[in-house]
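Re: the 306-residue chain
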Amino acid sequence: MSESNAAIAEKRFARLADVPLRSVGAVGGFTPREVVRSIRDVVAQKDMLDLLVKRDLKARYKDSALGFLWALARPLMQLAIYFVVLGQFLGAARGIPDFAIFVFTGLTAMGLFQEIAVGGTGSIIANAGLVKKVYVPREVFPLASAGSALFNFGVQLVVLIIATIAVLKPPLHWQIFYAVPSVLVIVIYGLAFGLFFGAVNVYLRDIQYLVEVATMLLFWASPVVYSWQMVNELVDNPVLVALYTNNPLTLAVIGFQEAFWVAGDALEQPSNLLLRLAIAILVGLVLLLLSHRVFLRLQGNFAQEL
């Protein structure tokens, strides 16, 4: 019996010896071939990615009576606070027609970015058990966070459209097409943040808290509760206005407002907004590739660090 087991073990070791070693983590040059290989590896794990997204959503709303409706709780509470405190008490609603729709549009756009960036940053540590036990492309964890964020975004978007219909100003205009490049900008930059800081967070655990603070600052640096027109009028320095306007998140929020805030059609907006969004997308893709490169360089020691 022992001889039979020894023979089986010897055959198993022989088969393992024939399997080529595969480098994980620190790769060689940054070539299109490696990028394509990484994308192919992630696509091959699409079933795992789907399971992770469903697991995140079920875990978040498990044993909840309202279930996925809780995805609306935070943005609706923020909307109520900003509408009452900033809009009515501090007078921010003056000069901004349909202020509630204006604010909820910005909250929906920025909420997507914040959830992708913050969720991606903590995704590797949150899935430490899987990282240490099995090998899958580590990119699936930030991508799963982005998937659950997009689901919540879809729920909020439906409510936003219902709200525009309730005020008798549905987005039935050609500007609705601004929504596509705007969402692309948000997702691309959110994933770039999530991949880069998700990898660094494994080694420096304070990064997650810094990202939360940074996304909060980016929220207030975008025209969510105040209009771009207000900044354009109050700031005399054209260089500062240009820097503010060309912030990709500012462009994405303005594009989203152009798409769904019909009452703002008559107000002045940045010139060549579609061109600016297209440039932001191209720059974002480069940033995403660089972030992915850093992720690949650092992922080899994830299991040991965790």
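Residues 34-305 form one domain.
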